Amino acid sequence: MIEECLSLLCDPGTHARLQLEQGFLVNPESGVRYRIRDGIPVFVEEVSGPNRKYQTMYERLAPGYDFAERAYRSLLRKPDFRTEYIRELEIPAGGRVLEVSVGTGANLRYLRPDMEFFGLDLSWGMLSKCVRNLKSWNRSAQLFQGEAERLPFCDGIFDSVFHVGGINFFNNKTQAIEEMIRVAKPGTKIVIADETEKVVSGLYQKMPWTRQYYKGQDKAAYSPIALVPAPMGEVQSRQIAEGKLYCLTFRKP
After folding, report:
1. What structural domains does the chain harbor?
2. What is the pLDDT of residues 3-17, one digit of tens each?
3. pTM for this prediction
4. Which of 124, 133, 228, 253 has the fewest Cβ atoms surrounding its Cβ within 10 A?
């Protein structure tokens, strides 16, 4: 499948086109080689700052992530709020969709089947769980390991781009937003959602398996609406999921 999407890929650092050579994606201009692990191109090796911190967290949480989420909703009788941000997406029939921070792929089950789905995540553990989920759901996707601030995709190729969870504590939120805009087609609606401070301070900083990563945060969780570049249109941000999430949407001109 990598061969089929090769024309859509680029070096995340220079945006030069890549070539497939002996199981590697190669930048012919610089000679940089990106390995392909179990069919998933790996565009990141060394990670620093908050990205490293939360990559470590999700690696540890990945094996039981889906179970914990289902148990939380069931025990506390919480509804599944995914539909609240999924309905914001505009996916044409046969459209090409990118989810940044795809995690275990849970959002894919809510999307139309007649599309071309691409998912990127920083955590190998989450991607591995996503692969298993895709098999059990009989769904297909092309997955990549990489950072949201450096997407390995060519300019203007996606009909829909969205991100859920993670941007609150990215190394560089501005750069991540600019990258989502870069890879979207003109006219594309971009959707970004993440937890509000209500969840971070009220839940994650208290739960034993996450508090070590969130304790002592010097930055509150908030919608990055101020970071959306001025040319973008229809910029809106609102709270959803009973105030647990914010949903930021805007359209690329």
Report:
1. 47-251 (3.40.50.150)
2. 899 999 999 999 999
3. 0.93
4. 253
